[in-house]
Design brief:
CATH class: Alpha Beta
Mean pLDDT: 94
Strand content: 25-35%
Low-confidence stretches: none
Number of helices: 2
Number of domains: 1
Order of helices and strands: EHEHE
Largest sheet: 3 strands, antiparallel
Helix content: 25-40%
CATH superfamily: Ribosomal protein L30/L7
Radius of gyration: 11 Å
Oligomer: single chain
Length: 60
């Protein structure tokens, strides 16, 4: 499981969301709609994604 990754896609705009949610989306490296990033499958990244499930789609 050392090479397990998460594919995270921004499916909804963070405009109108609280500032904390916007910061989480930026910290994940997402800037544009439908952009997908690949991050290591760690508790930190999973926790960040769980804070804004209405904005993201996770593909394991």
């Amino acid at each position: 499981m050392a090479d397990a990754t998460l594919k995270i896609q921004l499916i909804s705009s963070p405009i109108g969301s609280p500032e904390k949610h916007k910061k989480i989306v930026r910290a994940l490296g997402l800037h544009k709609m439908n952009q997908m990033v690949v991050k290591p499958d760690s508790p930190g990244f999973r926790g960040m994604a769980r804070k804004v499930p209405h904005l993201l789609k996770i593909v394991e």
